């Protein structure tokens, strides 16, 4: 796994051993960032369930102003710290080693994020809790792009009941990216 583009282009990133995380492949990461490339420069980026930190690091490498990474695994946080230091992007990043819902509450009252990316463990319905916390908090608005990476068969039809609209879905062989906006811009 590597950084695809920007200031840290081609630098290899570490990942965790085992099956606790599923790093987004370079091909899927490249497709994702091609879709959001115009939103990245100068943005505030929130990476929930950050894993190795590769998605937030890609955003920073491509010109995001700041990234906040949320991860509750000690091993994953150690990996993120190493990757941020190696890419020399650590001064633009904040790593929160805690539960996603608690982090969202802790971030409330700060500036709104432009992009929120979440790649929770598949088939555990964690994204629902994160979306509920985001809707109840003050860190997103109607202009924030929310991206969820999930299994192909994950049903996200409930998001409208939480106050979100699905604006786009990009399907891959084994997973998908679902793009949301909070209703009521």
UniProtKB/TrEMBL annotation:
Gene3D superfamilies: Vaccinia Virus protein VP39. Its EC number is 2.1.1.171. It comes from the Bacteria. Transmembrane segments: none annotated. CDD domains: AdoMet_MTases. One of its GO terms (molecular function) is 16S rRNA (guanine(966)-N(2))-methyltransferase activity. PROSITE patterns: N6_MTASE. The keyword Nucleus does not apply. Keywords: Methyltransferase, Transferase. InterPro entries: DNA_methylase_N6_adenine_CS (IPR002052), RNA_MeTrfase_RsmD (IPR004398), SAM-dependent_MTases_sf (IPR029063). NCBIfam families: 16S rRNA (guanine(966)-N(2))-methyltransferase RsmD. This is 16S rRNA (Guanine(966)-N(2))-methyltransferase RsmD.
């Amino acid at each position: 796994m590597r950084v695809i583009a920007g200031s840290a282009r081609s630098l290899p990133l570490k990942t965790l051993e085992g099956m606790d995380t599923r790093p987004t492949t370079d091909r899927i990461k490249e497709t994702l960032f091609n879709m959001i490339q115009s939103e990245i420069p100068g943005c505030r980026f929130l990476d929930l369930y950050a894993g190795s930190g590769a998605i937030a690091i890609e955003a920073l490498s491509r010109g995001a102003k700041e990234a906040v990474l949320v991860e509750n695994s000690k091993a994953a946080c150690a990996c993120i710290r190493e990757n941020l230091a190696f890419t020399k992007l650590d001064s633009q990043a904040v790593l929160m080693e805690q539960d996603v819902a608690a982090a969202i509450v802790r971030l409330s009252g700060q500036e709104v994020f432009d992009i929120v990316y979440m790649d929770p463990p598949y088939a555990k319905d964690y994204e629902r809790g994160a979306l509920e916390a985001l809707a109840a908090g003050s860190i997103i608005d109607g202009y924030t792009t929310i991206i969820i990476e999930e299994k192909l068969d994950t049903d996200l039809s409930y998001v409208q009941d939480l106050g979100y609209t699905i604006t786009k879905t990009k399907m891959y062989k084994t997973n998908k990216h679902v793009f949301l906006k909070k209703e009521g811009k």
